[in-house]
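Try this one yourself first.
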């Protein structure tokens, strides 16, 4: 997650995030050079220098990707998606067995990706990609967040039925 600058009226400063983990699962249809998919993505990161402050982002996206060389073993591609994300900021403190949440918000999100797909067999692909996901402005507690985004790299498999 990118660094977030706080306004002077909130005390100023910068929130920096540690590298996190992201997992994704989806279902889609391959039209040849064009693929579409509906995916669920979960991202977990932590606020650097702060104990027990975790940030969880869950997203549902509808995406499309264009494959160059769709009839070859190696297929470079680009893709874009739009959907909804929920961002939870957890303090890591429990009360009665329940984690106390500093706040959450549901927002619009956009994801761009570029990668390469390798066809292992007729029913199985392996891919690697770089991606960036941007979020609409959101508010948690009294803090307004703007220009928030995440970037990452992914390795994955596609099973074709």
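Now uncover the answer:
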């Amino acid at each position: 997650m990118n660094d977030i600058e706080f306004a002077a009226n909130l005390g100023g400063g910068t929130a920096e995030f540690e590298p996190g983990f992201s997992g994704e699962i989806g279902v889609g249809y391959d039209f040849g050079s064009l693929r579409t998919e509906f995916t669920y993505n979960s991202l977990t990161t932590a606020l650097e220098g702060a104990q027990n402050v975790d940030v969880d982002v869950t997203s549902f996206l509808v995406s499309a990707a264009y494959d160059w060389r769709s009839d070859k073993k190696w297929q470079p591609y680009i893709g874009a998606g739009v959907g909804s994300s929920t961002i939870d900021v957890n303090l890591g403190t429990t009360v009665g067995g329940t984690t106390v949440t500093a706040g959450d918000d549901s927002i619009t999100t956009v994801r761009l990706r570029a990668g390469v797909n390798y066809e292992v067999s007729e029913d199985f692909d392996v891919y690697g990609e770089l991606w960036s996901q941007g979020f609409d402005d959101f508010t948690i507690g009294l803090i307004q967040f703007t220009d928030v985004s995440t970037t990452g790299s992914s390795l994955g498999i596609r099973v074709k039925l």
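Discussion: The chain has no helices and eleven strands. Residues 28 and 37 are 4 Å apart (CA to CA).
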